[in-house]
Amino acid sequence: MKAQKAFLVITALMLLFVSSCKKNDDEQTPDPGPEPEVITQGLVVSDSVFVITADMTLSSSIFELEDGIYKYNFEGEAPEVGPGAIIVDSLNGGYLRKVEESAVIGSTLRLETTQASFEDLFEEGTLEFNVDLGVPLKNYTKSDGIEYKLLDDELEEGASTSNYVDYDIEAELSSEVSVSGGFNVEPRFNFKWKFSKEHGLEQFNCFLDNTRVGLEATLAFTAGGSVSATIQKSFGSITKRGIAWIYGIPVIFDIEVELLGMGYVHFEEEANFPITFTNTSTLSYGVSYNYGATSFVTGFSNQSELSATPSFEAKGQVRLDIIPQVNIEFYKVLGNVIKPKPYVELAAQYINVGGMQETCAQIDAGIDLGLGVRGEIFGEEIFDFSKDFNIAKKTLWK
């Protein structure tokens, strides 16, 4: 049973998914340039690898792609791609296929393919590199040797950014709650794979590397009477694509950062007050898969402060989390979700002191962490490793 489970995990991590069918007309071939700043040890590249070039245009229909038929129009001499070749593409969203049959029909190369895996590219050895989310780009630009391109940025009204790491927020979260302030996050990830011809994937590590998360905000609450509501708002999302060229082979990953406001409010009577707070965290945590076993590692520092003493007399509770949810996907199969969740929470109730009713209130702040790694093949979930950490909580006022 253990061997079967390990095989499923290894298979899910290795198999890659076709994420796009057609090359955009304005898409430029990224120049591989010099080798990226990666760590390799004994990394062996298969002799069967063929990288799709810019002068080969994918012309298959979506139905042909579903059947594994990849057709490329070319000019001049036909590309030499025969059965057993592993084709790698960085121009059409990124995919990896194994050729079963090939034919040249006029100026079209027709390939019948099946899904290939990472171990078809790298037969054995170790590969390690960093992914930097703080690169604000419109075109392919390099950071630590890896090329990044901004694919999409959709910010909702009330949220803005000039560099994709510092955000200004001023928005209504509900009819009773609004928030204004600044948010900073610069996640940096470290990925490591270890392969062997005998076992395929032996190790996989994903770690958040000394990332700073800073939040300075004012939470304003106004209620004319009893109110109970859930807060759930997206301030927008940023999507980037990264390409790490390893010995001339593209390893492709998509990064999405969605900024969320989540929480709840429940007050039993009229209330009106602001809370201004800051929360600064430095995070180092991640997940490690080693020979079939999974473990989580955490490390952090956190500081929370209240800027002024609040004044109110009401019974109820309100909590707000500002979450930069980060999703990194390699070929749409191997997904890594990181969710740092800095928050502020106020709870107030009435107590009886000497026959007199008084308000007893407390404001807490801190940060929770969410981390997950999942594998998916054609929409079917194969495995999902996830865990939440409640790592820091501080009472700011009571």
Task: Describe the protein's architecture and organization.
It is a single chain. This protein has helices spanning 2-14, 62-66, 118-121; strands at 39-45, 49-51, 57-58, 69-73, 86-89, 95-105, 108-115, 122-132, 141-143, 146-155, 159-161, 166-172, 177-185, 188-196, 200-223, 227-246, 249-267, 271-290, 293-297, 300-306, 316-330, 334-353, 356-377, 380-397. 34% of the residues are buried. The chain is 6% helix and 66% strand. Strands 1, 8, 11, 12, 13, 14, 15, 18, 19 and 20 form a 10-stranded antiparallel β-sheet that branches. The protein is mainly beta. A hairpin with a 2-residue loop joins strand 6 (95-105) and strand 7. The longest helix has 13 residues, at 2-14.
